[in-house]
Amino acid sequence: MFLKRFRRKFNLKEAVRPPASELGEVSSSGDKMALNIPWGHIYLSLEPKAETSFRIFADLVRKRCYDCDRDDSFVCESIACVSCTLPCPCKTCEKGRPGGLVICRRNPALVRKEFNLQTTPVIWLSSIYGNYTVHPEKLGIIEKGATDFIESTKRSVVLIEGLEYLININGFFPVLRMLENINDMTMSHESVVIVPLDERTLDKKELAYLQRNTRSLQKLLEEQNGRENSV
Predict the structure, then answer these.
(1) What does the pLDDT look like over 35-78, one tens digit per residue?
(2) Contacts of 70 (CB under 8 A, 6+ apart)
């Protein structure tokens, strides 16, 4: 049921970004991604509130590429550049615009408001039935929703927030298997998946399992800040 709603609500071929005038958004040629992130990896972000993860996610799906040299490109949030009518050089760029998906424990309306996300699908991990919700026990559906999105989107960025909640309900190893399967799709399609986690909720062995096949978002930020400060 969730997959049917997902495909119906967020048809990648039909989803087009509304005009900037409707979004109250100011476009600027200087707004580039703050993080030069290597694609094809899951990034584990050890933080209690996931604020850094959400900020980096919004930066990746809305702003120009970190190394973009086209001054006529602009801030844009879209999962269907091919259908967009705006005059944007990203349509002819071999990279294309990243498309984002959020799967989280937060209320989607609050996520959109806080991080200025308009067209990005936001799925709520909740036991409450609704068009934008999926039950936390349905790990197979959560996995399929994420992997389908990665497979069908040229440059996808997926944020999975609420891992502690999923582990509490399903156990650690079923959630780990879900992430491993998502990681396979992430690597094969050169995507980015960001997973915030409060490390206080796991023991050292469980944390080591998660860190084994993921990269550290904090380490990436520290390395980039170090390079920029040394210039």
Answers:
(1) 788 999 999 999 999 999 999 999 888 866 655 555 655 566 65
(2) 64, 89, 93
Q: Which two tokens stand for residue 2?
A: 């969730």
Quote the CA–CA distance of 149 and 138 in Å, as a whole number: 17
Residue with tokens 């294309």: 96
Q: Tens of pLDDT along 160-202?
A: 999 999 999 999 999 999 999 999 999 999 999 999 999 999 9
**C-beta separation of 159 from 53 below 8 A:** yes
The model's pTM is 0.81
- Token readout for 75 is 């801030």
CA dist 111 and 118 (Å) reads: 10
Please give the distance of CA 60 from its chain centroid, rounded to a whole number: 8
Burial category of 96 from C-beta neighbours within 10 Å (exposed 0-12, middle 13-18, buried 19 and up): middle
Domain ranges of the chain: 2-230
Determine the Cα–Cα distance for residues 51 and 141; give it in Å rounded to an integer: 26
Topology of domain 2-230, CATH: Rossmann fold (3.40.50)
